[in-house]
Amino acid sequence: MSVLYALLFYVATVLLIAGLAMKIRQYWITPAPLKIPTTPAPTTRGGVVLRMIREVVLFESLFKSNKWIWLFGYMFHVGLALVLLRHLRYFVDTTSFIWSWVPLISPIGKYAAFAMIIGLLGLWARRILVERIRYISGPSDHLMLALLVGIGLSGAMMTFVVHTDIVAVKIFFLGLMRFSIQPLPTDPLLLLHLGLVAILMIVFPLSKLLHAPGVFFSPSRNQVDDPREKRHLASWAAKLDK
Amino acid sequence: MAAEFQTPEFREYPAVPNALINDATAHLSPFIAKPNHQEPLGFPGELVENWEEKAVEKMGDLLTKYRGLRVYLDSCVKCGSCTDKCHYYQGTSDPKNMPVARQDLLRSVYRRYFTFAGKYFPKLVGARDMTREVLDEWYSYFHQCSQCRRCSVFCPYGIDTAEISMAAREIMDSIGHGQKYCNEILGKVQTVGNNLGLPGPALKATMAEFAEEIEDDTGLPVEIPIDKKGADVLLITPSADFFAEPHIDGLMGYAKVFHEAGVNWTLSSHAAEAANFSMFIGSYSNMKKVAERIRDAALELGVKQIIVGECGHAWRVAYSFWNTLTGVGAGADPSDEYALKLQKQLDPNVPQPMHICEFTYDLIQKGKLRFDKSANDHRTVTFHDSCNVARASRMGDWAGGQFDIPREVIKACCNNYVDMDPDTIKEKTYCCGGGGGLLTDDLMEIRVKGALPRMEALKDVVDHRGVNTLAAICAICKAQFAKVLPYYNFPMHMLVSTHQLVGESLVLTGSNQEKALQPKQEEPAKEDEAQAKAEE
Ligand code: SF4
Ligand code: SF4
C-alpha cells in the first residue's frame, strides 16, 4: 500500500507540475493584441497590482455581484488556504526557525476545515437550488464539488473523530521528498483522503481549476489603462503595419 | 418585416431575476450575409464545404492569437455570478442569454477539440462536436450579445463574453456564414468612407445646410468644413451625426463649441466615419483597414489633433485601439517608423485621440464657454452611460473620467440633472439593447426586449424624479432609443444628444442669443465689479 501511494503521489505531482507549467507557458506566450481592461481600470502598473490583489484576496468583483456566492466562495477558499497551511507540518521541519509559525496557525487551520466544508456545501446547494446555476452546471461541476467535499470531510473526520498516526504520515511524506518510501498507516479514512487529494492534483491542470493561474492572465483585469500613452503591439499584429 | 412579438412588461422595481424559459429567443437570428457582402472583406461568399473542419481550425488559430480567449475559455468555474447580469437574459428569460451559457456554446466546442477532458470525456464536461445545430445556435445567440461587457464586470476572473462573441463571429465569417448588417456596412465604409455610403459632394451639401441653420439661429457664420487642408483639428464622428435625429443636433453642438473656441477644424470625406463595425465581428484586419482611413486622412490634411464625436463603440476603438492599429496616439518605440510618422505630426500636449466631451469639458474648466442654463430649464435630464465608453475606455486622466466628464458637461449647461439607479449606471450601466452590431430591423425583437432593464431604470426616474430628458453620447444608443422608446410608451423627443444640450445653451460671442441676454446680464456684472472694488 505504501508503495502504491508513493507512486500515486509521484505521478500526481509530476502531472500537476508539468500540466500547470504547460498551461502557464501557453498563457504566457499567447499575445494579447489589444488593450481590453474592463474600465475603470488602473492607469499604472502599481494600480494593476493592487487591483489584482483585491481580486485574488478579497474577490472584489464577486462581492459586487452576488453576496451569497461571495460568502460561500470566500469561506471555502479562505478555509482551504488555512487548511493547506496547517498541512505544511507534514512536509517541513517545524522545529526549524523559518517554519516555527506553522504550529501556531495549526489550531485555526483545524476549525477552518468547517468553513471550507460549509462554504462548499453552500455552493453546492446553490448549484442545485438556484435554477440559473443548475442550468449551467454539468456533471463535472458536481463531481468537482463532491471531490472537494470528500477531501474536506475525510480530513475533518481524522482530525476530530478517528485519529490517524500523523507522525507516521509525516515520516511517509518527508520520506517521499527524499525518494525513500516509508510505511504509510493504512486507516481507510487516510487512504481515502490521500487518494482523493491525488485525484485532485491530477485533474487540476485539466479542469476549471485553471481559474487559479487564469485570473493572473486575464487581460480584462491585468492590463494597464494607458492605450493613448503607449503603443501596445503584438508581434503578429505588427506585421500588418506598412 | 419583424414577426409579431410582445414588448416585455415592466417588472416590479428593482426586479429579481426571471425564471428561465428555454429557447425563448432561439428563433431570432439576423439575415445572413450574401457573397457580395462577404467577399470584399476577405471572407468566403457562402458556407464552405468542409466548414466544420475549417471552423475548428480557425478557432485554433484564434487561440494562439488572443490570450484572453484562451484564458476565458479555460477559467470559468460556473459560479453563476454573471447569470443574471445580461440585459438580453433579463428581457427574454432565455437561459442561453445568460453570459456563461452564451460562452458555453463556444466553450463546449473548444473543450471537444482542444482539451484533454473534452477529447476523452466529452459527456462529463459538456463538450460537443461542431455540427450544424451548434452553428445555428452560435449564429442565433452570438447575435443576441451586444458585446457590452457588463458580465465581465461581475466575473471574478473578468471573463468577457464580448471577446467570445467576437471570436465566434470571426469564426463564422471565416467559414462564409457572416451577418449581413455588419458586413454590408463594412463594405461601404471601406469603399466610400462612411457607413451610409454618402459620397463627398452630398456630404458637403448637407454640412452647408446645417451651417445655414446655425447661422439663422445665431446670426453667426459658424462653419462645418470638410477636407480643409491646413486645419488643426480633424473631427471623426459617426456618420449618423450627418442624417439622424437627435444626432444632428449633437453635431451642431460640436460646431458651435469649435467656433467659440476659435478652432480651425475639419471633417474628412475620406474618413467620414467614426464607427468601426469590424470590432463587432472580431476582425482585427478589417478593423485596422477602416482605422487606417483615419490615419491617411490625418496625414493628408496635416492636422495636429484628432477629436472623436459622440459614439460608444467608436470611442472604444479610438481610445483603446487606434494607437495599436494605426499609431493615433503617443509613445511609439523609436524604431517604429509607421507610428512615428503620424505621432510626430500630432500635438504631444493633448491626448490623441480626444473625445469631444473631453474637449468641451476642458474649455468649461478654463472658463472659455458661457452657457445660458435657463435654455434647458424645461428639462430634467438623466444620462445614459454607453457600455463601450463606460467599460472599455476612459475620458480624462483619471480612472472613471468617462463617468464624470459627460455629467459635468451636462451639469454645466442644465440646472436639473438626476442620475438613474446606481446599479444601472457607470460601470454597471445597461446596454441600450442595440449595440454590438444588432442595430438592424431584422433583430428588432431582441432589441426591444434587451432594452427592458434600461427602460425600467428610466421609468423609475421619470415617475419619481420628474425626468423628461434622456441624454446619450453614442450614435447607436441614440438610434436604438429613438426606435425603442415608443415601445415602452416614452415620448421619442425625450431623447437628446449630449452636445445638443451644449449647443442649445451655449452663448456664442456676438450671437443673437448673447444680444438677447445682455440687458439682463450687464447689471449683475456691474454689481460684481463694484463689490470687487469695495473688497479691494
Ligand atoms: S457582453 Fe453584454 S450582451 Fe454579451 S453576454 Fe455579456 S452582458 Fe450580455
Ligand atoms: S461569473 Fe465568470 S466564472 Fe462565474 S459563471 Fe460567469 S463567466 Fe463563469
Give a written overview of the molecule.
The complex is a heterodimer of chains A (242) and B (536). With 242 residues, chain A is mostly helical. Chain A has one domain (2-228): Fumarate Reductase Cytochrome B subunit. Helix content of chain A is 70%, strand content 0%. Chain A contains 12 helices and no strands. Chain B is mostly helical. Chain B folds into 3 domains: 35-178, Fumarate Reductase Iron-sulfur Protein, Chain B, domain 2 (Orthogonal Bundle), CATH 1.10.1060; 189-357, no CATH class; 370-505. Chain B is built from 24 helices and 7 strands. Chain B has helices spanning 35-38, 51-65, 67-75, 87-92, 99-114, 116-120, 122-125, 132-141, 150-154, 161-174, 180-191, 200-218, 247-261, 284-301, 312-326, 337-343, 356-365, 387-392, 401-413, 444-450, 452-465, 475-484, 498-505, 512-535; strands spanning 233-236, 265-266, 305-308, 354-355, 381-384, 469-472, 495-497. In chain B, the strands form 2 sheets. Chain B has a 4-stranded parallel beta sheet with strand order 2-1-3-4. Chain B has a 3-stranded parallel beta sheet with strand order 5-6-7, with helices on both faces. In chain B, helix 22 (475-484) links the parallel strand 6 (469-472) and strand 7. The longest helix of chain B has 24 residues, at 512-535. The chains are: A mainly alpha (242), B mainly alpha (536). The complex binds iron/sulfur cluster (2 copies). One iron/sulfur cluster (SF4) binds at residues 85-86, 88, 99, 102, 145-151, 161-162, 431 of chain B. One iron/sulfur cluster binds at residues 76-82, 99-100, 155-157, 159 of chain B.
* Residues in β-strands, percent of chain B: under 5%
Structural class of chain A: mainly alpha
Structural class designation of chain B: mainly alpha
| CA distance, first residue to last residue of chain B | 73 Å
- On the 0 to 100 scale, the average pLDDT of chain A is 96
Oligomeric state: heterodimer
Number of alpha- plus pi-helical segments of chain B: 24
Parts with pLDDT < 50 across at least 5 consecutive residues of chain B? none
Instruction: Spell out the helices and strands of chain A N to C.
Output: HHHHHHHHHHHH
- Distance from N terminus to C terminus of chain A (CA atoms, Å) equals 66 Å
The gross shape of chain B turns out to be globular
Mean pLDDT of chain B: 95
Q: C-alpha Rg of chain B, in Å?
A: 24 Å
Number of helices of chain A: 12
Number of domains of chain B: 3
Radius of gyration from the alpha-carbon trace of chain A, in angstroms: 21 Å
Backbone shape of chain A = globular
What is the CATH superfamily classification of chain A? Transmembrane di-heme cytochromes, Chain C
Small molecules held by this entry: iron/sulfur cluster
